[in-house]
Amino acid sequence: MHTASPPGFDDAQQRWNERFSQPGYLFGREPNAFLVQQSARLAPRSRVLCVADGEGRNSTWLAARGHEVTAFDLSPVAVQKAQALAAEQGVPVEYLIAGADTWTWTEAKYDAVAAIFIQFAAPALRTALFAGMWQTLKSGGLLLIQGYTPKQLQYRTGGPGQLDHLYTADLLRELLPEAQWLELREHDAVLGEGSAHRGPSALIDAVARKP
Questions:
Q1: Number of domains, the chain
Q2: Could you tell me where the DSSP H helices lie in the chain?
Q3: Which residues constitute the domain of residue 54?
Q4: For residue range 99-155, what is the model confidence (pLDDT) as tens digits?
Q5: Does residue 106 sit within a domain?
Q6: pLDDT tens digit string along 26-57?
Q7: CA 55, 59, 64 angle in degrees (round to 5)?
Q8: Is residue 1 in some structural domain?
Q9: What is the pTM of this model?
Q10: CA-to-CA distance for 23 and 199, rounded, in angstroms?
Q11: In a domain, 133, yes or no
């Protein structure tokens, strides 16, 4: 969800710390609806990585359903709030502070990777980010992606507001040439995720299986 690309890494961290320091949860406390829908594809007790997980709404929900969850975010403030949410719900989540450009993508470690609105990356970092997420999946593992398409620039109800940070189906196919696509769909929907994602939105939903 959050900007983490060099140059300006420290500035990005400070900016997100300020946003997450506001009262309440910026993207809400409820899990992303696409993630909830697609979680039926996960085997019981899957090992899941949540990328740029923010204040923990997705990681805590997955942990509450019995999955072994690791999550990271650039913002220490967000991670602290995520830890508080997990403690409140009584679920174990391994939370770490890291940016997408500093995270260690251990090979074949996870059964699934959740990449929900992580459109902070300019093209060069995005290529490395997707390569890393793919590398860290086990064979047969799933990459769950939801993001905004270029049409979102008309709605302006969330997202980075930069064309080269937005996704299309063709772009995802290019980034993940080995993927078996279980879902790859561009569509419009109305979001209600906290104060940051609210209103008509141009979305892409994608589920990629690693052979």
A1: 1
A2: 9-20, 33-38, 57-64, 76-89, 123-136, 152-155, 169-175
A3: 9-209
A4: 999 999 999 999 999 999 999 888 999 999 999 999 999 999 999 999 999 999 999
A5: yes
A6: 777 899 999 999 999 999 999 999 999 999 99
A7: 125
A8: no
A9: 0.91
A10: 21
A11: yes
